[in-house]
Design a protein that fits this description.
The protein has helices at 21-34, 42-48, 53-61, 68-83, 95-104, 117-126, 150-159, 173-182, 213-218; strands at 8-11, 18-19, 90-91, 109-112, 136-137, 166-170, 185-189, 205-207. By secondary structure, the chain is α/β, with parallel strands linked by helices. Strands 5-4-1-6-7-8 form a six-stranded parallel β-sheet, with helices on both faces. Strands 2-3 form a two-stranded antiparallel ribbon.
Length: 220
């Protein structure tokens, strides 16, 4: 990508812009307590937030995600999580400054997340850091979620840019796959919940802290 080709940035939400782990930790703790189950190590929950709520229930209750009980418990977890949105978590330190810098450079941004609109929209409304977000793409808007590129392609369309003019930033291998599948450049967030430095080779740029993101994005 030519240095002057960058015209927009799309981000994943959880583990990339938003540290939602504290809200999920509290929510799963409450659900486990309700069902007289021992609590999980918070670090285990944090490491699996980007894997989805079925995975969290599976870990917490030591059952397979295919177990019919898992689906029912997941609904309970989602209800609990809805009451805890932004209660304990929020934007990662450094995200506000990075987004402000993009705004100063007149580079629009949007969010493409596997988080349902039911949860993502209130977060964008109530977390002032995201006030300039130009588009929000959730599974509710799509036929297929990441790693399918549909969400990123729609996000680019909403920003009025071509995927080759976009960088997609995420903390999960599905994010990187989706960005590559869409024809966008990608940046890995190693400060998030899933990826570790070196997971995807030297050819993919990685941010060890949110403070690194603006400089990495600027390289495009």
């Amino acid at each position: 990508m030519d240095q002057k080709m960058l015209k927009g940035v799309l981000f994943d939400l959880d583990g990339t812009l938003l540290d939602s782990a504290p809200d999920f930790i509290a929510s799963l703790d409450n659900l486990l307590t309700k069902h007289n189950q021992p609590k999980l190590d918070p670090e285990i929950i944090r490491n699996h937030v980007s894997d989805g709520t079925l995975k969290l229930v599976s870990l917490g209750f030591n059952i397979k995600t295919s177990d019919e009980k898992c689906a029912a418990l997941r609904e309970e977890l989602l209800d609990e999580y809805e009451t805890n949105l932004l209660k304990y978590g929020g934007a990662f330190d450094g995200i506000k400054e990075m987004l402000d810098s993009l705004e100063e450079d007149s580079i629009p941004y949007g969010i493409v997340t596997n988080k349902p609109l039911r949860f993502a929209e209130p977060i964008l409304i109530n977390e002032i850091v995201f006030k300039n977000c130009k588009t929000l793409i959730c599974p509710d808007h799509l036929n297929a979620i990441k790693p399918d590129p549909e969400g990123i392609l729609r996000g680019c369309k909403n920003l009025g840019i071509h995927p080759a003019e976009c960088v997609y930033v995420g903390d999960h291998h599905k994010d990187l796959e989706a960005g590559i599948n869409a024809g966008a450049e990608v940046i890995a967030c190693y400060f998030g919940y899933s990826l570790k430095a070196g997971d995807h080779g030297q050819h993919i740029l990685g941010a060890n802290h949110p403070n690194d993101l603006y400089e990495l994005i600027s390289q495009f």
